Amino acid sequence: MTPHALDTDPLLVASGAAQQDLPARSLYVVATPIGNAADITLRALWVLSKVDAIAAEDTRTTGALLRRFGIDTPMLAAHEHNERQVAASVVERLRSGGRIALVTDAGTPAISDPGARLVRVVLDAGLRVVPVPGASSLTAAASAAGLREGTLTFAGFLPPGARERQRLLRELASRGEPFVLFEAPHRVAATAAELAGVLAPQRRVVVARELTKMFETVQACPAGELPAAVGAAARGEYVLLVDAAQPAAAEVDAVTRRWLAALAEAMPASRAAAVAAKASGVPREQLYALLTKD
Fold first, then answer.
1. Backbone phi, then psi, for 228, in 5-degree steps?
2. What residues contact residue 89 under an 8 Å CB cut-off, 6+ apart?
3. Which end of the chain, C or N, has fewer beta carbons within 10 A?
4. What is the pTM for the complete model shown?
């Protein structure tokens, strides 16, 4: 598919991408596939084919993606080792009226990947940054994990030092809120053992591996079984999602029980439990279970 063919592609035409503005003096942060090449969005293809240059984490990886879709936009290398130097060049090109896209090897730039420094420099220079959202292993894994409601903390990759890792894991575990880690295959077995050591044995953990790739797996298990679920011969990139801790059952005193029984005589059990929960602070589910356990 050539850039010209992209302009007339029926799906891209139907999306309206070609009718959208493509402001100059802007950095476009473009998400790319995390596994399945079809993860790419129509808007991402259009932007990548129209910008003046693409700042890529690895030009070989991005080059293969561009060739697949017939895009011949020039590239420049922008990885963690040269990001500071590239940022100055990008800002200069943007100030001259250019349009530059930022991509990483997979997923959304600056989410546990290079790019945050470049984005920050561009913003601090008073220039525009335009997100072109799409694939992200964080959102993909969270959407398939069925986590309980609550604040979701994204911790990304753990620090390399053993003491700092333990401190962070204990802190995350103690909050009781759901949190997400990224892990590489050669470290995931050790991380699984560390997690099992700081979490309550029955706390729910979801292991997502090779998302959108051929051997994708998403499985849930109790924390005590996490090392066995991961296994010793791990392969592929992992996302580990720790669900919220189960709230401890509140004690239901005699007065609350009497109020609950009286309310249940005047209204449906679900409504009685909701009213009693608001007055007593005891979770509605627990009160409802008391009314329906027989």
1. -70, -35
2. 76
3. C
4. 0.81
Residue 137: DSSP 8-state: H
Q: Which residues pair with 100 in a beta bridge?
A: 27, 53
Under the phi-then-psi rule, with left for phi > 0, alpha for psi from -120 to 50, and beta for the rest, what region is 239? beta
| HEC-encoded secondary structure of 265-282 | HHCCHHHHHHHHHHHHCC
Q: 3-state DSSP call for residue 180?
A: strand
For the chain, give me the number of helices (H) and strands (E)? Answer: 13, 10
pLDDT of 249 above 70? no
**239, 180 Cβ separation under 8 angstroms:** yes
The string of pLDDT tens digits covering residues 214-227 is 999 999 999 999 99
User: Tokens representing 10?
Assistant: 């029926």
Count Cβ atoms below 10 Å from residue 236 Cβ, excluding itself. 16
Question: In whole angstroms, what is the distance from residue 110 CA to residue 31 CA?
Answer: 10
Mean pLDDT value across residues 74-83: 88
What's the CA angle centered on 127, arms 124 and 130, to 5 degrees? 110
Give the mean model confidence (pLDDT) for residues 172-196: 94
CA distance 112 to 161: 18
Bridge partners of residue 131, in order along the sequence: 29
Q: Determine the Cα–Cα distance for residues 258 and 262; give it in Å rounded to an integer.
A: 6
Please give the Cα distance from 104 to 165 (Å, whole number): 26
Work out the end-to-end distance of the chain between its first and last CA atoms, rounded to an integer number of angstroms. Answer: 65
292 has pLDDT over 90: no
